[in-house]
Amino acid sequence: MRGVHALAATHGPFEAAIGHSLGAAALGLALRGGLKLGRVVLVSPPASLSDHTRKFARMLGITPSIREAMRLRLERRYNVRFAEIDRIEELARLDLPALFVHDVADTQIPFEDAVRLSAHMPNARLLKTYGLGHHRILRDRSVVSAIVDFVRGDVADLPAEAPALPVPAPIY
Question: I need a surface site. Which of 44, 78, 79, 160 has the fewest CB within 10 A?
């Protein structure tokens, strides 16, 4: 978050920004902290840093006591509590167009996180993808095209789902 603010102070102002995963979380936190943008794209964002770190620690086999020690150390180092970061209801006061892009089969951050986050933002749209996961979503042509269109303000034909699935759609 401090890096985003520093970048805006030295090279901004910016009309738009795009963040992925924890970068999207940092961007959302920077917006809550006063960053001014015309629009924002958040790709595969976690809704809760606490939940995300618990899942990450479980995946790596880190014990709860070590995870808790890491949390305390991070909170002291950056002078911000996870509970403050996780107050996603504060997104409701942001008055800018936002595009959330998330894959339903993302194994690192659940699709429901984007649903929860976008529900708090009054000018948010959600682009649902299928079969792209957490990383391939960044390279998919239809996703990149939708993001570019959104950043340009060309939202009339912005899809709700991508990539376009054939009819009838295959069973995943």
Answer: 79
Establish if 172 belongs to a structural domain.
no
Q: Which residues lie below 8 Å from residue 107, measured CB to CB, with a gap of 6+?
A: 133, 134
Residue 168 has phi, psi (to 5 degrees) of: -75, 150
Residue 171 lies in a domain: no
Report the domain count for the chain.
Answer: 2
Q: From edge to edge, which strands make up the β-sheet containing 98-103? A: 16-20, 39-43, 98-103, 124-129, 161-162
Give me the residues paired with residue 41 across strands.
18, 99
Q: What average pLDDT does this structure show over 76-90? A: 88
**pLDDT, tens only, 112-134:** 999 999 999 999 999 999 989 99
Tokens of 37: 């943008």
In this structure, what token pair is assigned to residue 150? 């959104």
pLDDT digits (tens, 9 = 90+) for 9-56: 999 999 999 999 999 999 999 999 999 999 999 999 999 988 988 988
**Structural domain for 133, as ranges:** 2-47+90-154
